[in-house]
Design brief:
alpha+beta, four-stranded antiparallel sheet, single chain, 7 strands, three-stranded antiparallel sheet, 457 residues
């Protein structure tokens, strides 16, 4: 029986028990598992640990029998009759232990006994309200009202001029950094709440895409629900951005003529950063929200890495070098390989666009800014306000660069540690396993740019 692992998060599970006559005759205690039909089998996993694997239908039925109280001997006998081959019990137990599906004898059970979608996780009720039909009516009303105002008044339509809500240049990135934080939290919060309404846990972290710093909401447990129910969690952040754009535009209209003019202008500036974050999602080659929508619709499991491997292969072919060796842990489906043929050129064009925009606009703009900063510090006639503006800009830039470096080093250390653990497990594992457990892409991630530089530049 061949099993393809979709997540290796349970690699620290206890060693697999030996299939003694007593263990074969006794019931096997399992954690509560979810089972979702896929094209190539059944996705089985634990939402609480994000450990998933694709089993053949006969293997899934064996697990159903064990969960219902059948002994391993009874399940193995059924498997032999249904599949026409003998179940390697030792190998089967080892696979279940590697995935963390086996419950220890002294484990009384816990929150993970509740299947995904059937129990309560924190904020699940808020998630249900956030995507209830009255909420959808409110969202639609805000979006329509804002669209009408934009049609009536061209000054309300998104424009890069909105960013310059004040004459103090250094105040712009500082202010937008501060006010963007709650907007990003709303974006990521909608991702999390859309998963929580299904009873699925989620985590928020900071990561990197190329030279962009991004916030990520990890929803690995989406493997526990059918593909058709994954679209809203993927698109929820874009919905939040659209609602924020609409609400901020209407707020700017309401504030006009009431109080300082810069307050209404600030609302439009914040709205423009939300527009840029919405447009960012179309850069799907950076694995944004729409990337996961596309791969889910195409029924692919690891399209990004399959396309990267195809690009590396093409480059080596053009340079007359030997083709690269595929990662032995990569389990790309035939559909991944087929879709990668058209996705690989888009990947190259996308990365070229990002690097080209950096060379064309990003670096020259940065050089211009820093030359002005240097002039302010070196000119003895610079006013105190100008010095403070320059110092604030330097501090903010240093903070962003420092965070980017920290995330890059953290990810590289984690990858190196994971690679070492995998090599150690390979050296110490049994060499005669008939079940092939291999790692594939598990990161169901939704993300958004985490800094104004990524959103505005």
């Amino acid at each position: 029986m061949t099993v393809t692992s979709a997540s290796a998060s349970a690699s620290s599970a206890s060693p697999a028990p030996s299939a003694t006559s007593a263990s074969v005759a006794a019931p096997i205690r399992l954690h509560r598992l979810t089972m979702v039909p896929e094209d190539d089998g059944v996705m089985i996993g634990r939402p609480d640990t994000a450990s998933y694997a694709v089993f053949p239908e006969e293997g899934a039925e064996v697990l159903r029998m064990l969960a219902a109280g059948a002994t391993l001997a009874e399940a193995a006998a059924w498997y032999t009759e249904a599949a026409g081959e003998t179940l390697d019990v030792d190998d089967f137990l080892e696979i279940l232990a590697d995935l963390g599906f086996l419950r220890d004898a002294d484990d009384p059970g816990g929150p993970d006994d509740t299947p995904a979608g059937g129990g309560r996780v924190r904020w699940q009720r808020l998630g249900a309200w956030t995507f209830s039909w009255p909420a959808w009516l409110v969202y639609a009303g805000l979006i329509v009202a804002a669209a009408v105002e934009m049609i009536r008044d061209s000054a309300l339509r998104p424009s890069y001029h909105d960013v310059f809500f004040t004459d103090h240049l250094a105040l712009i990135p500082i202010t937008l950094t501060v006010v963007q934080i709650p907007c990003i939290l709303v974006h990521e919060g909608y991702h999390a709440l859309s998963g929580r309404r299904l009873g699925l846990p989620s985590t928020l972290t900071i990561s990197r895409r190329l030279y962009y710093l991004v916030a990520e909401t990890r929803l690995d447990s989406l493997f526990s629900v059918p593909r058709r129910r994954r679209y809203l969690p993927f698109l929820a952040g874009m919905l939040a951005d659209a609602v924020l754009i609409s609400g901020l535009t209407l707020l700017a209209v309401a504030l006009r003529g009431h109080g300082p003019a810069w307050v209404a202008a600030l609302m439009l500036a914040i709205s423009f950063t939300c527009v840029m974050r919405l447009l960012w999602q179309f850069m799907f080659y950076l694995e944004t929200d729409l990337y996961y929508v596309v791969t889910n619709a195409l029924r692919c499991s690891d399209l990004q890495n399959a396309a990267r491997f195809q690009v590396r292969t093409a480059v080596r072919r053009w340079t007359r070098r030997p083709p690269p060796e595929a990662d032995p842990d990569a389990e790309w489906s035939e559909r991944d390989r087929r879709m990668a043929r058209w996705y690989a050129p888009l990947l190259v064009v996308g990365y070229g666009f990002s690097l080209g925009s950096l060379l064309w606009a990003g670096i020259p703009t940065t050089v211009h800014f820093w030359s002005q900063i240097e002039n302010r510090f070196s000119d003895s006639g610079t006013a105190t306000g100008g010095i403070l503006d320059a110092a604030s800009f330097v501090g903010l830039t240093a903070l962003q660069i420092g965070l980017l470096v920290y995330v890059t080093v953290r990810d590289k250390r984690a990858a190196r540690k994971q690679g070492g653990a995998a090599e150690e497990g390979s050296d110490g594992g049994s060499g005669d396993r008939s079940g092939d457990t291999s790692s594939a892409e598990s990161g169901v991630v939704s993300e958004s740019a985490a800094t104004p530089a990524a959103d505005i530049a």
